[in-house]
Amino acid sequence: MTSPTFMRLTPRLQRSLQSLLSQEPAAQLIRSTARQQWRLIVLNLGSSLVEAFTEGATLAVVFLAVQVLSAPAGTPFNWASNPILSRLPAAANWLNGLPATGVFASLLALAVLLQALQSLTRFLILVSVGCFAARCRALVTALIHSQVLSFSFPCASGYKVGDLTDYAGQGPEAIRLQIEMGSQLLVGVLLIATYLSVLVGISPWLLLAVLVMGGLITMLQKQLLPRIRAGSEAVSQAQVAISSRITEDFQGLRLLHSSGQLDGADQHLRSRMGELERQLRGQVRRLAVVGPFSSFLPILAIAVIAGLSLLLLGGRSTGVLPSLVTFVLALQRLNVRLSGVASNVNQLADNSGRLARLNQLLSPAGKQFRRQGGIPFRQLQLQIRFEGVGLRYAPELLPSLSDISFTMPKGQMLALVGPSGAGKSSIADLLTGLYAPTAGEIWIDDTPLEQLELSSWQQRLGVVSQDTFLFNATIAENIAFGTPGAKLAQIQAACQAAQAAGFIESLPQSYDTLVGERGYRLSGGQRQRLSLARAILRDPELLILDEATSALDSQSERLVQEAIERFEHNHTVLVIAHRLSTIVRADQILVLEAGRVVQRGSHSSLLAEGGLYQQLWQQQSQTTHQAHA
Ligand code: ADP
Asked: Are 361 and 171 in contact (CB under 8 A)?
């Protein structure tokens, strides 16, 4: 029936409409795309209206056809007095001149034409909504991508990679569903309006009677269904209690025997069984009502409608049958549409979770964004200077770096050493601009780093870290990443310098070998040499080597070390090293402990000074010694 579905619909419908009209980023994106793609929207709206119109016209044709078929043979028609054709005198005159079979054939042709038109409108609706959704999907994917890339590094790294890829996959899907469901909802609502106007046109009283009947049925269902649910819960609880009691009794036979409780246990079970039986009987009665009730209701409804129609439509010149058939047909189609709209609304409601996640990602609230603009960086003139720099990763955490001050003259090599967690990588992260100091200042010549245009500074850095990320691309493309327009000869030279040329040339497709997740698997040492080649190719102003030789065997380490040494001559280099042997020649060594500089100087002066550096050096000499022994 119509009204039960309708009553379940309204609160969710309201929520769905709100989600379509809200100020959230996803809804705004759909609306602004709709403004750009207005032709598609006009096509969609126009086609939806035409579909509703053809549906109404089809019902009118059904009405006329039934009138022709139900009239006794030979009855002359005056079509001008027909309730539908009285508004179309030209058509009425034309039909007056035709025999009944001719009228029927014309109506049949018209019905076919209307259905063809409806098929066309459905095609146009699908195409327009599909094209619009495709456009929005493309836009939202690009928006998600640029939104994530515009986050500051700390903000972006606060998300799990899986969550971000999930956003990128689910977001466009949520938008597609929203648009398609929105369009289906529109068509559904227009059709419902058409059916309602046909039903009201035939007889508002009959419609009212149907609605009242629907309301009564809903009320009955509301009475019955919760009772059935509660009854079945009570029965299953009682069954569980009884079966566990039986198990207990059988397991505890020894106790029941020895304590003389056998009769008591039997009595207890009998009384429980009596209770269960009562509940089962009640439930059987309630369930027995449902089947006959559901099969009887449609018959009752049809009987009521037919009976009422005799009463309400009996006096019509067209007779009862055309109105009754059209009424029942429209009612049945209305019911189908209401179910369709209800399912659209449910899908929109289901989609609202995904949409909320998308909105949460796209909205600027609670996000930090990458710094834009600033003074473009060109070249390091004199030095990089840390002045009382401190870093707290979060206000509630202890500082990871405190009062760090040092100067790194251009062309020199500065090494950071210290136990794990001392803050070495944090200094590198500050220099690369991934994090901003929470105290003090980093100076690049005479400009604070925070005033430089971040991307222009980062483009002039070469970073080789422990984990080298390789894209799914060729070796040459991976090395040239960040150096657009690099020639193959330059790439080869960089690989030569990074001691990578040898292994690359031995690969089946040499520099064209595909690497990355879906390509050739490189060893840790090979990846690191690629990363070094990538950095060398950029000819950076500052090279940051973070445990760069950690993944190498001792022979490749020596080769890479030589490469780095050659590169270091005329470059500024920051090295983070666990193996102190690699930084013996550094111009300056900072020894860090718990986020503070505890010693500084050259290798020889630090060794002579004693303290943490000497301890670390001795520990490592011993380990190397043992390894060689
Ligand atoms: P090192 O490179 O010397 O091993 P790090 O610079 O990686 O040390 O870490 C210094 C301290 O900062 C450590 O206590 C570490 O737990 C903390 N830390 C590093 N990165 C983060 C981060 N992203 N968020 C919170 N704490 C961090």
From this structure: yes
